[in-house]
Structures are given as structure tokens and as C-alpha cells.
């Protein structure tokens, strides 16, 4: 029996400024452990698709569901935690990455989520098993695995290289927990291939096994300690082959 999808998109339609469709009636599902690779020529709507899925961009019609519950029923602030978009280039923010991390941790929706996770843990002794709270990783430790020394977190964003900023932003999004679906917009585009493959293995290793299997997928054993699935934009055919379980090519729509 096929597993129930974690995430569903139904009949998503986005119009250009001239009212012609960028894409129309797009539907997809994401099962536990899957990595859906999104590809397509420039201008085909890859980033727009991810931003719509994260409820960051408006769309003409369509429904988004996580565990069968529509985005509007979750509430948009909670949805953006559970279905988290990580941009290709993090915005140049004031202050340091450490300041940014503390600001995110102070958001009321995250504090409520932390309280709920603690309550669940107190109730059954083992937490919720969905990578929330007990599945979190110290973002500084995670980034260090990817070659980011901890002193860099105290430097202003504007002084970091593109690759440093990209790794820190990704480590925050992954390490802080709460996301069940990660929307990755070319997350390693400014990073050398060796480090990119380390990041790939880290992300794949956090996923649950596909259809309950325990065997390695793409050479990586799944631990199920993080998000339930990934939607990943990449222009690299080699990376797509390494990480993807399925591919959606927007050029063909």
C-alpha cells in the first residue's frame, strides 16, 4: 500500500502580469522521505512555485495541504514554519547571523510550538517524532560540519561570502526544527562541490525511510530526525541524480 502523502498541491495556477499563465492546474504530492527535484529553464517559475507553496506569493487558485489539512486551516505563520522556504541568496539583514537566530527563536508561533512539543513529550515520554524540538540540531554545530567556524556567526551578514551566508541560512532553517517540508531554492549554488555533497548527505540523512524501508537511499541511511520531505530546485543534473527520488520539469508544462 502506498504511503499517505505528507504534502499535496492541487490545481495551483499562477498568472504573469499580462494575465497569461506562468503555470496552471499544477498538482503534486510528496510522500514521506521523498525528494522532489524541480528543474526547468530560466523563467519557467521554479522559485515562484516554491514561494507559492510557502504562502509567500499570491496565486490565482489552488489548494495546499500538509497531512491533509489546508494551509489556511494551519494559519499562515505556522504554515511557514512547517513548510519552510530557504532562498538561494539570503537577504542582507542588519546585525549578525547570531542576532537573526535569536530573533527567530523569539517569534510567538515558535514559542507556542516549543511549548506544545514539550507538553507532548511530557505526556508520552518521547515527543512527537516529527523532528520538532527533540529533533532539533544546534545550527552552529550543523554549520560547522559544513565548514563554517563559529566565530563567523558574530560577523555582520554583509561581511560574509555568498557561500558562507548560504550555509548559515540553511543551517538555521534546518537546525531550528519545526519544518516538515523544506523548500530548497538552489541551496548549494555558491558552494564548492565537496561541501555541497556533505550538505546533501546531511539533509538526506535527516529524512525518514521511504515506504518504511531501512536500506540506504542514494548511499545515505535515513534516520528520520528532521523534515519529512524535500522539494529541491537545482540546475545541476549531477546533484539531481544524487538527491532526487522524482523530478518535476516546469519546462514541460
From TrEMBL:
UniProt protein name: ABC transporter domain-containing protein
Domain ABC transporter: 7-253
Any matching Pfam family: ABC_tran
Positions of the UniProt region annotated as Disordered: 114-138
UniProt KW keywords: ATP-binding, Nucleotide-binding
Organism per entry: Kwoniella shivajii
Cited InterPro entries: AAA+_ATPase, ABC_transporter-like_ATP-bd, P-loop_NTPase
